[in-house]
Design brief:
The protein is an all-alpha fold.
């Protein structure tokens, strides 16, 4: 009986500890933005990318609810933070591949979202997809383009 109580106590303790660790890892969007602004240059691409992904989820949610104006504002944030991630990745030469892959996935996601909204609401989504594709092209050029001095 005591071993069973001990096991239950240990399992409960582990569950509480894992929940506390999970809650600590989840930063608010404002905290993440502040951390990205003050981060080292080589850490910025990943942080800006995470912000862009969170904003893209928000935009998807707004369009799903039929709130096109709020979705459009979130799309502008997606483009802004994606551009910051792209610029930081190109400047440092770090995380180029990760940023490119994530931008491609976000562009695909927005193409799918575009098919589900009214025709009048499709233009801002297409513009976002086009901007993301331009950023991808810039990243691919940085990865595979001619190097200086060669």
């Amino acid at each position: 009986m005591t071993t069973m109580r001990t096991r239950i106590f240990i399992l409960t303790l582990l569950a509480v500890a894992s929940l506390a660790a999970f809650a600590r890892d989840e930063e608010s969007l404002d905290q993440l933005i502040a951390r990205a602004e003050s981060a080292r240059p080589e850490d910025r691409p990943a942080l800006y990318l995470k912000i862009a992904q969170l904003k893209s989820e928000v935009a998807d949610k707004f369009y799903g609810e039929g709130s096109a104006e709020a979705g459009k504002a979130a799309l502008q944030d997606v483009v802004a933070y994606s551009q910051k991630a792209t610029d930081a990745a190109i400047a440092t030469g770090k995380k180029l591949k990760n940023v490119e892959i994530t931008l491609r996935k976000m562009a695909e996601k927005f193409r799918d979202v575009k098919r589900t909204v009214a025709f009048d609401d499709q233009a801002p989504i297409q513009q976002t997809v086009d901007e993301l594709e331009k950023m991808r092209t810039a990243l691919l050029s940085a990865m595979f383009g001619k190097k200086k001095g060669k």
